[in-house]
Amino acid sequence: MKSEKIIAANKKRLEDGIKAFERLKTVCQDPMKVNEELLLKIIRDNEDTKYGKKYDFKNIHSIEDYQKKVPVTKYADYSDYIKQMTGEGEKNLICAYEVGHFNGSSGTTGDIKYIPMPQEMIDVYMAYINRGPIGVLTDAIGEEWTKGRCIRLAECPSEERYVSSGATFGAISSHMTRHFRPNIDFLFTSPDEAIFPVSGTDTKYLHARFALMDADATGMMAAYLSYLVLTMKYIENNWEMLVDDIEAGTISSTVELSEDVKSQVMDKIKPMPERAAELREIFKGGFDEPFVPKVWKNMKYVLGIGTGGFKIHADVLKESYTGKNIPFVKIGIVASEGCFTTTYRLDSEDTVLIPDSVFYEFLPVDADDDFSKIVTIDGLEQGKEYEIIITNMGGFYRYRMRDAVRIVSRFENTPTLEFLYRIDQTINILGEKTTEATLREAANNMAESLSIELIDFSVYADIKTTPHRYQYFLEIGRNPKGYSNDVIRETLEKELLKLAPALRDLVDRGLCQVIKVNFLQQDTYLLWRDMAIYNGTNSNQLKPIHIIRNEQQRKFFFGLTESSSEP
After folding, report:
1. Which position among 69, 235, 348, 406 has the lowest Cβ density within 10 Å, counted as fewest Cβ atoms?
2. Residue 540's pLDDT is what?
3. Which helix (H) or strand (E) holds 154?
4. How does 5-43 read in b/e, with b if 16+ C-beta sit within 10 Å?
5. Closest CA to 356 of 36, 35, 19, 1
């Protein structure tokens, strides 16, 4: 009976997914027409708002009119309006649509931003981020994935949060996950107690334990693939405890759960000696080969954000845990302000623009803020790098996202993009402005050339040392050839200086030292995640700390350094 309900629940996801993928293919036929129509609709709908009157929306009838009358903006241009919306519930300020939800975003600086999200925006997220990728998956591999549940590593506040005006507030991913709550038992392996945890719940144990219990799981999903890597590493390091608990139908005393939660979870488990014996045999064989295909023989897909800053995690996941035969569905560029691209094929590093999501403008990265060089979709050049500027249905107009992308190819008639880096995310000791993308590529190249497993990395601009220098922090997993710390540092330094000529010039002139590399304890990034969640960060918004920005981060990573290497 349960298997029938699993298939029925997944069939609904399948049907919705196919419809969303068909919609994507349709709007991608003539993206400029669709995008311009969306802009003019937003302008017409919002011409009587306070913002619309200020910038004379009534007399805007074309993209050219819009660009002449409306300035390029940033969040500070809307913060006073949003305070009135969240605090007093005032309407018709920047957005004519009913705003029932505010997306919570920490941004680059860590300051909380409140992004208005009318239902019109949420519908787009649901179509292209929640449903569309399932349509792409089904189009490529068929319906076999519907026969099992998904290992979904989602965690949302147990109760909805609200702003003073009465609208809900929080990560849009959490808001959308609540849509599935009535069918959680049939869609996902994790119990309600893990996906909607109360404070003090060891969610990593619950996710891993219940996933291992389900031999028939067909998918793996996380907002960011970094969490899947950390969960697989957790299983690798704690498999004996997990398997013992599965065998006996118990929960280890080392697992942190309140008595109420423990009682609820115990009602959902029973001794599984046969499954435990199967798992024990697999794990006793070691971890030189990926264990996912052995533990879950029907695994059909991995889904989540795995491009840009998360490519390193996708690569580790495929190399060390899933193997190369399980396809990845890599979700596109998604932000609190809108979803901009989505997947259109499996195992793709580029994703396609969504023409009916937001109105797009693009500023060449090398334009030095010369807004006269802004182009729309029809002016994009393959291979060129741009900053994304968006107009959305939540009341943001010509809003600078500070995301740098490269135009890669086309799907139907619509450009596909590769996310490069956050423009604000750079290291700048002496004017060299090394991007997060460069730091990431150097670390990836080092790991690939030495065949080591790089769990993650962070970089600190050390300006207290003279001359100044970059300090890398690395969490290394497997090192099959036993390379020394010095070899790892020398290889990383070589790759970085090759990719960062401005930094190389500073080193050559003696104005900057070569790098120091700090090697972190095992599970450092998992501990960082746990600490951030304990301090109130939503797990679905946790992004890698690739550039250390504040004293808390600096103390944390230095405090968990096991050894170092420097010239």
Report:
1. 69
2. 64
3. none
4. ebeebbeebbebbbebbebbeebbeebbebbbebbbebb
5. 35
- For 435-451, give the DSSP string: EHHHHHHHHHHHHHHHT
pLDDT band at 424 (very low <50, low <70, confident <90, very high): confident
b/e per residue 426-458 (b: at least 16 CB within 10 A): bbebbebebbbbbbbbbbbbbbeebebbbbbbb
Give Dmax (Cα) for the chain.
72
Q: What does the alpha-carbon distance between residue 183 and residue 246 come to, in Å, rounded to a whole number?
A: 24
- Beta-sheet pairing, 385-391 with 359-364: antiparallel
CA distances for 498 relative to 240, 275, 287, 291, 452, angstroms: 44, 50, 34, 36, 20
Residue with tokens 């990845």: 328
Given the structure tokens 């009838």, which residue do they identify?
A: 61
Q: pTM of the entire structure?
A: 0.85
Contact 137, 16 (CB under 8 A): no
C-alpha 35/C-alpha 39 separation (Å) is 6
pLDDT of 217 > 90? The answer is yes
Per the CB < 8 A criterion, the answer to whether 174 and 107 are in contact is: no
Q: Is the peptide bond before 71 cis (omega within 30 degrees of 0)?
A: no
| DSSP annotation of 131 | I
Question: What is the rounded distance in angstroms from the CA atom of residue 400 to the CA atom of residue 341?
Answer: 16
Please check whether residue 456 is in contact with residue 470, taking contact to mean a CB–CB distance below 8 angstroms. no
Strands 469-476, 516-520: pairing is parallel
Distance (Å, whole) CA 443 – CA 55? 47
